[in-house]
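hiii, so i know i said id send this last week but things got crazy w the move. better late than never?? heres the sequnce for the chain we talked about at the cafe, plus the structure i predicted for it. fair warning i was half asleep when i ran it
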Amino acid sequence: MAIDIKREEQHTGKVEQRIVYESGNEMAAYAAHQINYHIMGYFPISPSTEVAQFLDLMKANGQHDVVLIPADGEHGSAGVCYGASAAGGRVFNATSANGYLYMIEQMPVQSGTRFPMVMNLVCRSVSGPLDIHGDHSDLYYALNTGWPIVMCRDPQAVYDMNIIALKLAEDPEVRLPVLVASDGYFTSHQKRRVMTFAHRQDVHDFVGAQPPAGYPDVLDRNNPITVGPYMNEPDYINNCYQQSMAMYNAERVYDRIRQEYAELTGRDYPILDLYRMDDAEVAVFLMNSASEIIKDVVDQLREQGIKAGSIAPNIIRPFPQKQIAEALKGVRAITVGDRADSYGGHGGNMVNEIKAALFTHGNSDTLVVSRIYGLGGKDFYAEDGHNLFRFAIEAAEKGYVEKPFDYYGHTPGDPAKAPKRVLNPMKYEDLKTGLITVTPDAASGKLNVRIPPLRSLTKKPKRIAPGHGACPGCGIFSGLELFFKGIEGDIVTLFHTGCAMVVTTGYPYSAHKATYIHNLFQNGAATLSGTVEMFWERKRRGELDHLNLPDDFTFVMVTGDGGMDIGMGPAIGAALRNHKMIILEYDNEGYMNTGAQLSYSTPIGHRTSTSNVGKKQAGKLFHHKDTAQIMAATNIPYVFTGSESYPQDLVKKAAKAQWYAQHEGLVYGKILITCPLNWLSEDQEGTNIIDAAVSSNFFPLYEVENGITNITYNPEEKNKAVSVADWLGSMGKTKHMTKPENADALASFEQEVNRRWNRLKAKHENPYL
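okay and structure toks below
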């Protein structure tokens, strides 16, 4: 069904509604809380992160019963959702961009086994290079996963489509997971007037208070089932055929559901949103947020006597092939704007599907112009809409398309403006001071390290230039630079996605004075291990002799902002392979680069944007991950913890780390750094807060050298021990834990800190532990 819209006032509908002024992300969360899903598995990634944040905030205040499960990565979140849907409940998720690609192998599994759920894809550029703004490059990967896909042009549509999507997913003729797509940083963050159901009961009356009964799930003890068996032909092709039929059924079912929804609310989302297409001779096809802007352009062209119209789909899987071909009868030329390229396909996915629709349904008269636009969040204005129409008008006048495929909005390169080196390479002589000596002790099997007074190392050049965009008081770079003071000679660094990466590499600038690599949040350890092995192999073959390297490189992977959650698997793999490299984690106790969500390194009870504090919830619900002990269990040569509040200790450990990484194998180090913005602390108090974390035994300083644990600073022996409560009271994110009503949480945290500290002391005293 396609309805030609003239922008008349919509009817109010049959149910009581209320007006809110919210963003697309807020409306996705609002719809989810009214539905009251059973489970949301999630992992933060911009710009979809806020959906979980808003739900958690409502959860803390007791507004819904949704169980929010923070996964170790998007792949894990997809697994959580699949398992929950197989158990018969209602399941919800939200993701974006590379996060969606990370979970993508799970998508056909869920649709192929026919377990419904709803997931919001807040569309964003897929890197590389890394760009966190909106286009449809992630959405186009979703086209072949077997999920029906509905589209949202504004926050109102995000709210409505999230409710429609669940009913569509659970319909007996469909039974498929459904994707709800909106534009990142356009729709997701813009505040708009939105009409909502005033009462949750009306939502439940529409979608059903409970999932439909009568379908198998894994919790029915009287009907045990096998989910996802191995399947040969001809069964596999039959299964795929049934899934395909369900997908095509979704078009008819969606059309029925949206009419029911329109009767209730007065808001209609026909399969095609046709604007002034009844007599149009030229048209533009756009999706989501840009499709509203183009309507103003249509009105302006109509005032000039040009018969213009626009088409925007509200559902693209199944693709409304017949409706589009019908809408384009009489249209002489159309420009199809794709917000992502199908590289090598002579156009984006939508233009090629529209061409197929015209060919299939016998409409070969309409000329089609393909333009790729708006990539990486590039804004789309009415002026751009006029240019897209100009391409169609010119084609209609000429009777042919002069340039069928091109990009729109790109700019030609200017050789005169090519980036030039600002920072000269650091001199080896300045990096190799000779002031630090590391010698193996044959008797103990350990390393003896001698370092000079720290003042003498201040002349050593910094590895990262000033001028980066970190927040005031950020401890990342003071901590990293202190560590690097203990490293002699040349380094190659790899940074995971995170604050340290984002604030130092805004193109065309870079604050890195040494060679730098970036790879995705989860895969840095594997990437750097490949670089390391290539170095040693090319050196063995004599291919690097011309460089006259006086010493070998030291390879350092820098991770943080939760990177040892999603990146834990590859890090353990690199450790077990024992590559000659250092993994250095800066621990700021959260995913700070995406808005301070909880990480597995966030301690219990701490406030983050996904572990809010309210009358029903008081911060994070489970204990923090001890990554140093996990990595020590892989039996790598050297593991250490460090802190800038004890600089000599950290510099010595850095020197040891370099020796082991150049001679024996992989090293893992963890330094605690302050994040005043998200710890809700004063900028100047960072060192004192870190010192208190060490002195309370929350973050003990120790090393594990060839399997033997050595505590390098014991606050009890120095008579400098402080209570955990004193440390917690120094930060706004944890002050609530010192209140009487949170005494149980504080006691649990103190008990766990003491347990880990006592275990560490036992290991220190016994070399066999």
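btw DSSP finds 25 helices and 26 strands in the chain. thought thatd interest u
miss u guys!!
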